[in-house]
Amino acid sequence: MDRSGAGLNRFGLTLVGLLLLAGGGLALARSLGAWGTRAADRPLLSAGLRGFPDGHPWFWPAVAAGAVTVTLLGLTWLFAQGRSEKLTGLSLEQDGSGVTKVSAAALTSAIEKEVEGLPGVEKTRARLLGSRKHPRLAMTVSYAAGADLQALRSHIAGFALVGLRTAVDRDSLPAVVKLRLVDSSDRLPEPRTPE
């Protein structure tokens, strides 16, 4: 799931949670006599409101339809949480002789190791996203302040990505590469070996 979808999920769940918490808190406060004992002793729904379904035969079918709709929306949302854009592998089609399947982890691990071997690179994280027919690469490269940024970009674009495209036999493989400067103070000191 992308970041905007995750943010929308958090906002929606927070809003629903706050509404439910406020409704439950108000009902609890009323039952405990926050608005007086007279309000606490009266039913929550008035007699007219309680008798409304008796005079309107469409009421309960409408409630049932609303409940089914809310249930279906909830299930749709639940199943959407399980979907991910991350690919587990790619199929490389051969010329009529079959299909070769390549693990996405193997491909991303290879490009990560190649880029991490460059001077000044601290860490690399790569993922294949999209669909099997339209894959794309998302890569984050963390580099130290002394790294040659121009050489790093040239190597990634000219060698690493070209090698990945060749490996998966594709003329085009869209890629987003984020370069992130790592502050040397953020890094942990090297562990000392006992003498």
UniProtKB/TrEMBL annotation:
Q: Which UniProt keywords apply?
A: Membrane, Transmembrane, Transmembrane helix
Q: What is this protein called?
A: Alkaline shock response membrane anchor protein AmaP
What are the transmembrane regions?
A: 58-80
